[in-house]
Amino acid sequence: MRANYKLQRLYLDTPLAAGETVPLGKDQAHYLLTVLRLTDGAEVLVFNGRDGEFSALLRPQGKKSANLEIGAQTREQPEPSRLDFLFAPLKVGRLDYLVQKATEMGVRRITPVFTDHTQLHKVNAGRLEANILEAAEQCGNLAIPELGEASKLEALLANWDPARRIIFCNESQAGNNPSSILSAIRERDLALLIGPEGGFSEREREMLTALPFVTSIPLGPRILRADTAAVAALTAVQMTIGDW
Question: In angstroms, how far is CA 95 from the centroid of its own chain?
């Protein structure tokens, strides 16, 4: 069942069940009461990434606080995605976009990876998590992608579970169409690796292509920005291997 976009959706970091009363935090109460100007009895939708989605009624407690009365479940929690997203951090504005789009596309985990040509060498985990939650609220997703710990590419590969195949978007890969390569993949536990604006270094490409659990794919004849490449690659993987 698809999301109901006529109602405001709210992420709550608390167990959800019909009949419960949940107090809202200061920021969420301010948003509903002051920004959206919702009144007593207004209906919203709530989710926590674990228990599905529920309807809820707003019950103001004065001007600055409020509770939610949890009603019936409107959607069950879906099976978790089996696709991880690995990316080299970009400049802040485009990094926000990248994380939001990966969340909308339904990935299981989002992990920053530092490469030879990465533009940023540290990330603000709190900002990334806020973007993940905001994107999930707005797009109707019930699953909340986990934010993986940022690490260097070598460390990530050294500790990688080889049962989860990495699909490596390689700008030097021969050919233009990734569909035949993707169609031949039999694993369903996957990760997609997107490089930085400057691409992967030759050293990194050699290291990746030498690993038995890595599959290299092209992304067409045009040079794509990293955030564009991420959306294109996620779409190709989901359409060819599964989830769409």
Answer: 12
- Reported as a single tens digit per residue, the pLDDT across 27-84 is 999 999 999 999 999 999 999 999 999 999 999 998 899 999 999 999 999 998 999 9
**Which one, of 46, 49, 48, lies nearest residue 74 by Cα?**
46
Widest CA span of the chain, in angstroms? 64
Residues of the chain short of pLDDT 70, as ranges, are 1-2
Tokens of 76: 């069950």
Rounded CA gap, 115 and 136, in Å?
28
Question: Which tokens in the block code for residue 88?
Answer: 């080299």
pLDDT tens, 67-83? 999 999 999 999 989 99
DSSP state letter for 145: -
Taking the C-alpha atoms of residue 244 and residue 166, their distance in angstroms, rounded to an integer, is 19
Instruction: Write out the H or E segment, with its range, that includes residue 126.
Output: helix 125-139
pTM to 2 decimals? 0.91
Contacts of 138 (CB under 8 A, 6+ apart): 9
Domain 83-240 has CATH 3.40.1280.10: yes
Q: Structural domain boundaries of the chain? A: 9-75, 83-240
Report phi then psi at 112, rounded to 5: -70, 140
Q: What is the CATH number of domain 9-75?
A: 2.40.240.20
